[in-house]
Amino acid sequence: MSALDLLAELPFDAAGLVLGPEGVRERRGDTARERPWRSVTKTVTGYTAAILLEDGVVDLEDPAGPEGSTLRHLLCHASGYYYGSDRILQPPGRRRHYSNHGIDRAGEHIAARAGRPFDELVQERVLDPLGMTGTRWTGSPSVGGFSSLEELALFGLELLRPTLLGPAWFAAATTPQLPELRGVMPGFGSQDPNPFGLGFEVRGHKSPHWTGARSSPRTFGHFGMLGTAFWVDPDADLALVLGTDHEFCDDHRRVLPRLADAVLAEHSR
Known about the structure:
Blueprint: E1 14-20, E2 23-28, E3 35-36, H1 41-55, H2 71-75, H3 100-114, H4 118-127, E4 136-137, E5 145-147, H5 149-160, H6 167-174, E6 183-185, E7 189-191, E8 201-202, E9 220-223, E10 228-233, E11 238-244, H7 250-267
Antiparallel strand pairs: 1-2, 1-11, 3-5, 4-5, 6-7, 8-9, 9-10, 10-11
Helix pairs in contact: 1-3, 1-4, 1-6
């Protein structure tokens, strides 16, 4: 039995790929069909932002969003914005409040500073260099991406061996920003602390969580509410990309942590 055989325990169709730095190690199911990324989109937005931060086009301390908020606050869910609107729940930097609207506003800010539409920046700086020619970017920097798992795996391989970012900005994107902040992790309740990088969720010591007990605290990635997800564990030098035909639910919460542990047990060197 291989680790990905655990996907059969989900009561709906599921597919996945295990990645090592050399490429795909294992696959199961339909990995070629287009799937909605939903919040997985935020990771590509964060990566694009980090590339433009490295280039000096924008700065993490740029004022952006509500009064007192910066681009950093927007990208790590600390601006105080409500989930889906300009409504403000608390001052910037006080708590981690997950906000699609904040990520979308970050994209607007970057586009304004670059003088280019954000989707063009994503295409030029991330998708084209990685050969993600079939990925569709439908507008929203928070939830607008679509691709096959095969294409999303190209991004996962980049995250295992970065080519588009230098070490300092790669670390900024994938390790905690404002690491002490607590807040609610969507689908998993209150977490203290609740670490996020720039568009990437960071595992830390969150419990419960959708990765496993074996997962390094440095594990980063994201899940989307329509069933697409990926994680990268830099300590194990492994990544998992998966897609399911169901909204994120209790079955995902039950199976995904066991799946992560099985992948790590089978493929860690």
